[in-house]
Amino acid sequence: MSGSHGDSVVNLVHTENTEEKGLSLIDVVRSDAGLSLFAAYLVREYAHESILFILEVFQFRKQFKHLQTVRDDDSPEFQISDYVPKCRTLTENPDDFYKQAEVIRNRFIPYSSNLCINISSSMRKDLENLNFHDLEVEQLAIVFDDAYKRIFSLLRDPFLRFRETYEYQALLKETKPTSSGTHPSHNTSLSVPSPDSKPRLSEDINVNLFQFIQAQNDDKIHNALKSVGDCFVNCCTSRQQPAKSRTSTFT
């Protein structure tokens, strides 16, 4: 059953060796600005289903942080920035953990889904055939762990390409891991300066992808994301909302 405690994929996502200067994937996703920049890059890479799945399962799992089954597996890939709006799966089904799990499965697991993630056939079959209501809460809390680790490990390749971008270079200048190996501050505030080279599409993606931004930037962001498809629309929370309803959600 998905959710068994396998080896951490952290060795796959620390992409630099000890002599190389740079940020690992773990470093980047632990940083607020880093997660936003990398998420925006994945959108442009047409890999938005991966980051959406990571964020939804991370938030789903975090609800059970008091449980022993969750505390037993505190792998680095589960320690990403949580400074993003709460996903609709949780806000629309508060405290109904079994319903939340059903929504996550229906959105990301079936081949027919627009947000189908890249997992093995056996893992997909196990999740599709699983009756969540047969599980104790302790088991439900980690039911997506194996799929989460699989998708996180697959982020290694796009992350290597992300390291060649201007956004990464700007992030590197302002976010440095400490000599003790601790992760960058979650409060990293990144303002990307104008590059010397010719303008790129990435300049129109706001650093704070998951936060409200000034209205004048909305059109640029929506135009840049238009080709991704309707399934991503609600992930970008930059759209102007009525003043009396300012609660952020994604997906």
Describe the 3D structure.
It is globular and about 50 Å long. The chain is mostly helical. The chain is built from 13 helices and two strands, in the order H-H-H-H-H-E-H-H-H-H-H-H-H-H-E. It has helices at residues 10-13, 25-30, 32-44, 48-62, 68-71, 88-91, 97-108, 121-129, 137-140, 145-154, 156-162, 166-174, 218-225; strands at 86-87, 249-250. It has a two-stranded parallel sheet. Mean pLDDT is 72; it is low at 2-19 and 177-248. It has a single domain (1-251), classed as Regulator of G-protein Signalling 4, domain 2, CATH 1.10.167. The protein starts with 9 loop residues before the first helix and ends with a strand.
Task: Provide a short characterization of the protein structure.
This protein is an all-alpha fold. The protein has a single domain, classed as Regulator of G-protein Signalling 4, domain 2.
Number of strands: 2
Tally of distinct domains: 1
Mean pLDDT: 72
How far do the termini sit from each other?
26 Å
Q: What's the CATH superfamily, by name? A: Regulator of G-protein Signalling 4, domain 2
**How many individual helices?**
13
CATH third-tier fold name: Regulator of G-protein Signalling 4, domain 2
Judged by helices, strands and strand pairing, the structural class is mainly alpha
Q: Percent range for helical residues?
A: 40-55%
Largest sheet at a glance? 2 strands, parallel
Q: What's the overall geometry?
A: globular
Largest sheet strand order = 1-2
Low-confidence segments, ≥5 residues, pLDDT <50? 2-19, 177-248
Q: Determine the strand fraction and express it as a percent band.
A: under 5%
Order of helices and strands: HHHHHEHHHHHHHHE
Provide the CATH architecture.
Answer: Orthogonal Bundle
What's the gyration radius in Å? Answer: 18 Å
CATH class: Mainly Alpha
Domain RGS: 24-172
Protein name: RGS domain-containing protein
Pfam families: RGS
InterPro entries: RGS, RGS_sf, RGS_subdomain_2
